[in-house]
Amino acid sequence: MNKMPVEETLSRIAQVFHSGDALAIIWNIIRWVAFFFKLASLACAIPLIGLVVFDFFLWIWRINRPPPRDTPQPSRNPSRSPSGRFKQPLHHPANGSGSSSATTSTTDNSTSQRRTIFSTETDNS
């Protein structure tokens, strides 16, 4: 191995500082550090941008995809009972005595607000 003498090393360092190359070396290091941070920021941005683009194309693909043939299409007609009449929805009261609250309109002419009146009956079964 060849070792450089100390005097020669010091003379090269002095030559770099006197010729103005030191500023170029420092700016080169700063540029590489900035490049590293830009690259690190793209490491998060590129996957997110890719996900947005993928979701857009998936959305377009689902819009243009024909419906599967083996599944039945939902009927637009409401379901009918065998007698041909429409089925009525089932309503079950909250408790056996009926509804516990009612919405009524006040008969006073000074106000037109709707108010909910709660029953004072309690069912202690």
Automatic annotation (TrEMBL):
<feature type="transmembrane region" description="Helical">
    <location>
        <begin position="12"/>
        <end position="30"/>
    </location>
</feature>
<feature type="region of interest" description="Disordered">
    <location>
        <begin position="65"/>
        <end position="125"/>
    </location>
</feature>
<keyword id="KW-0472">Membrane</keyword>
<keyword id="KW-1133">Transmembrane helix</keyword>
<feature type="compositionally biased region" description="Low complexity">
    <location>
        <begin position="94"/>
        <end position="112"/>
    </location>
</feature>
<feature type="compositionally biased region" description="Low complexity">
    <location>
        <begin position="72"/>
        <end position="85"/>
    </location>
</feature>
<keyword id="KW-0812">Transmembrane</keyword>
<protein>
    <submittedName>
        <fullName>Uu.00g127030.m01.CDS01</fullName>
    </submittedName>
</protein>
<feature type="compositionally biased region" description="Polar residues">
    <location>
        <begin position="113"/>
        <end position="125"/>
    </location>
</feature>
<feature type="transmembrane region" description="Helical">
    <location>
        <begin position="36"/>
        <end position="61"/>
    </location>
</feature>
